Amino acid sequence: MRLAQPSWPKILPTWFVVNLATLGWIGRKLPAPGTWGSLIGTAFAAMFVPRFGVAGVIGFSVVAGYLAVAVCGEAEVRLGKQDPGEVILDEFVAMPLCFLGWSSLASGWPTWVVLAVGFALFRFFDILKPVGISRLQALPAGWGVVVDDLAAAVAACVALHAVNCGWVMVAG
Fold first, then answer.
1. Strand, coil or helix: what is 152?
2. Domain ranges (residues) in the chain
3. Which of 74, 99, 98, 96 minimizes the C-alpha distance to 22?
């Protein structure tokens, strides 16, 4: 099966595609835009994940991930760049996956610690792209832009739960 770039965003105006993909001026004006996109995604996750649980987060990630693939891929075309740094919708969409299993994470640590450690782990995996994550960037168009961030979020989630388990064993 060949992954194709969704074609429906071609009908959208450039200003809309670029503003959505860059989260407005945040991706275009602030330094380290991926970090800002991740931070905004963390704030969103803090509000969303505890209320909607695992099924809600996975549902959001599937739908928002597909929309991000379409919009980020089209933004690449409109900006004339491959995986442009100012496109940060992918980081925003991926962040809720870092906090799957929120109830077990939040039971032993203050909320701000869980969010900070999850954010830091996501940035680690997103920037360094270990454990095969870098190969996902080779996927075509918006798939390569978004899927590596989703994989980084899953890796961050696994690491966050491992840290939590280690902490529970040491502290308990």
1. helix
2. 8-127+140-171
3. 74
Tens digit of pLDDT at every position of the chain (172 positions): 578 889 999 999 999 999 999 999 999 999 999 999 999 999 999 999 999 989 999 999 999 999 999 999 999 999 999 999 999 999 999 999 999 999 888 887 899 999 999 999 999 999 999 989 999 998 998 999 999 999 999 999 999 999 988 766 666 5
Tokens 């959001």 appear where? 60
Taking phi over 0 as left and psi of -120 to 50 as alpha, with beta for the rest, 83 belongs to: left
Q: How far apart are CA 42 and CA 83, in angstroms?
A: 21
State the residue for tokens 């280690």.
Answer: 166
**Residue 146 CB coordination number (10 Å):** 29
CA dist., res. 162 & res. 170, Å (int): 12
Tokens 């870092």, residue?
98
Q: Which residue type occupies 166?
A: G
- Per the listing, tokens 């978004």 go with 146
Residue 45's CB: how many other CB atoms inside 10 A? Answer: 26
Q: DSSP characters for 29-64?
A: HSSSHHHHHHHHHHHHHHHHHHHHHHHHHHHHHHHH
94 closest CA partner among 24, 25, 45, 164: 45
